[in-house]
Fold this protein.
Amino acid sequence: MTSLKVFLLSFAMLFVFGMTFAQEVAEAKEEIKEVVAEAMTLDEDIQPQDLEVSKPRLLPDSPFYFLKNWGRWIREVFVFTPMKKAELRMKFANEKLMEVKKLIEKKKDPEIIKKATENYQQEVERIKNRVDKIKEKAKENSQVESFLDKFIHQQTLHQKLLQKLETQVPPQAFEKIKEAREEHLERFQDMMLKLEDREEKITEKLNEILEKQKGSQFKNFKNLEVLKGLEEKVPEEAKEAIKKAQENVLKRLQGDLEKMSSEDQDRFKEYTEKISGEKEKHLEILENLKSELRAVPKPPESLKIFEKKLEEGKVKILEKIEKKLEKLNCPPWALPAPEFCKRGRIIVEKAPETGCPLPPKCIIPGEIEAPKPVPPISPEKPEEPGIIEVPKPVPPALPVLPEKFLPGCKNLCGDGICQEIVCLAIGCPCSETAETCPEDCK
């Protein structure tokens, strides 16, 4: 009888403990959701005051909306310099974007939303026309520089809001919002480079303006996405400036995450899964972040755990990319196998014609080029005339490999990754063949 009582008491205690534990887990999950929702609101739900305009009252679906446009036209008539006209047009674009946001929140007819979006696109084009008439550059005129700072700040907010609106708009108007965002990004970079042509200044401005922008503790993740969008649009000669700005923002994000508690790191993982935007770019940012963390010498255990969390986040993002295909009417796309690219970075590019995701690629850390042949050394002038010394053949220079690759081939071959060039360079054959290599290595 005593044994039965002990058993029943133990069972009751375990049951109560299990219920308490389950409740604590549920509460922790709910708390993560609340914090993440607040962070997302800060980083993507741009408000009128953020763009220095008032809340829209008269919307494009009103029969009296033409009065609002008349008022805008009259205000511009009394502005005379290209700079002031560009500033005023930027204000009108801010107002019109807020009108689109309000229409979507009110769940208005998709055709009305599309028309309002078109009004916004036309206003962005008018800003460009005004900027084209500004003759000086930022280095020559402090007023131009001040305008450019405000312009960069507000246009990055436009990008974040347009990404958010893509997730809220009815399906019939989705393509119009997507088109507006892509077109805006094109105009954004064009006007920025028109007013500032110094590479180091572009990097500096983007870096400082994004750092000062309000946002959550995770805001640098969203800022990186905007910079990656800009990198795709800018001409080749300006790409380096954008890449340098990305490096700075990535370092800040890495530093912030390394200092965060385990709970905040869990929130960051949830944030990356739920935040709006292009999931292909989110994946690339996470993979770059993982590469930076792996490069930390003698990382603490907490950092290793966080790296595993990022790996879990990567899987969720890949799943979201797969789901997005239905919305874009893209061809079938299979998720990569769990063991795919364990030692590298996965990137998913988009087909330029359709915007559909292409099959995932694997970029291996420490990839090197094949050794280049060393040109023969010219012989020195011989002491005796008529005698030419034949130069000794110079062996090809071997590439300098990272320390982790030096012990041998076991870390390079036989892991499903083609590393034949590396293996041969350090004197050991690669065991892989055309049959065992991944498809993209053949």
Residues 224 and 247 are 9 Å apart (CA to CA).
